Amino acid sequence: MDTLAAIKTRRSIRKYTQEPIGKDALRTLVEAAMFAPSAANQQAWHYIIIDERKLMDAIPTFHPYCPFITSAQAAVVVCGDLERERFNGLFWVQDCSAATQNLLLAAHAQGIGATWLAVYPIQERINGLRELLAIPDHLVPLNVVSLGMPAGDVRSADRYDEGKVSWNRF
Ligand SMILES: Cc1cc2nc3c(=O)[nH]c(=O)nc-3n(C[C@H](O)[C@H](O)[C@H](O)COP(=O)(O)O)c2cc1C
User: Fold this and answer.
1) Which of 35, 89, 118, 132 is the most core-located residue (most Cβ within 10 A)?
2) CA of 139 to the centre of ligand 1 (A)
3) Are 147 and 72 in contact (CB under 8 A)?
4) Residue 157 domain-assigned (yes or no)
């Protein structure tokens, strides 16, 4: 799949088969995330890969919008690393968001379904993950990406909207 096709056909996938996702595939996703642009190339991120059922099943106890993670085969928690961020916390959200999009596209390119689940800045979800995964204070979880082989097809949608584009001046 070429890059533009991958971008245009990616969708959030929330229904998964029971097929496991191997460690190599998970490593590839995190590797793709690390190729994202970041402010001053500080790469202010850390990735926690989850493939233990018990851990994934606990996430809906503090995150109300991801009941389907109990059928996911793995997840990646994308964290900002405040110790690597030399801009007083100004840019880690952008760094980690770019990394997350890379991860989502890499998953899609490999036929793996994924959904971005919001964590930061909702304190209850941040605290829930800190406790569950022993995340230290200098790491801030931005999101969880749920992962699994897609169960069924999800259609791509044409989202190009001329009304959201200006040339030269608004
Ligand atoms: C910042 C952010 C937070 C999101 N949080 C959730 C979430 O908590 N639960 C969920 O099911 N989807 C979540 N999503 C996925 C969006 O619902 C999804 O991207 C959007 O509906 C567009 O659909 P698509 O990803 O299929 O293009 C989130 C996406 C973003 C970018």
Assistant:
1) 132
2) 22
3) yes
4) no
